[in-house]
Amino acid sequence: MPESANEVTDLQRVIERFASGDDSALNDLLVRTSDRFEKLTRSMLSDFGRVRRWEETADIVQNASVRLFRAFQTTRPTDIRGFFALAALQIRRELIDLARHYFGPEGLGANYESRSDWSDIAKSSKSSAQQGTETFDPSRLSTWSEFHKLAGELPDDEREVFDLIYYQGLEQIAAAGLLGISERTVRRRWQSAKEMLNEALDGRSPV
Predict the structure, then answer these.
(1) Could you list the mean pLDDT of each consecutive 10-residue stretch along the chain, which spans 207 residues?
(2) Which of 129, 167, 187, 189 has the fewest other C-beta atoms within 10 Å?
(3) Between the CA of residue 190 and those of 1, 44, 88, 186, 200, what are the distances in Å?
């Protein structure tokens, strides 16, 4: 996804093409979104080797792209803010579903053991203990699920800024230009959003 003002402007042109009925622009939109989604997926799953055993990141990104494709069939954003809002919503839903699928009460990851992984898990757990993290702890992925759910429930101003920076990867200055507000206001809303999430998760927010 775009990280500069010039890239945002370029993306706006693609959105306008798509909104006017140019279906060839759809693939460009999906590619731009999938790049950011891949980074988010890798970040969320970096501690969870058991999940990676069943699902490659590329497959997860493909699932999210299908979700986005379907959303674009019924909704054609007319501006970049609408596009980002729709894309963030679909990405958030896919990440929530992913976490629930593997580590919900009936999740594959929560109810499956593999002896072949014991040595790797032991090594990773030892390393994680030294770093103060909880690698391979199902509750960590549960926290991610709750995190994405709560992100969608933030107040409108905080949610829009959070979506642009976290889910879309915009720099704060680019987000400010897009929203027509000062960079200082963006920083304040971004910080407020993170504090709200951290408080709601009792200090366990991943960001």
Answers:
(1) 64 88 86 77 65 64 83 86 86 80 56 41 40 48 83 95 89 90 97 96 86
(2) 129
(3) 18, 20, 16, 6, 16
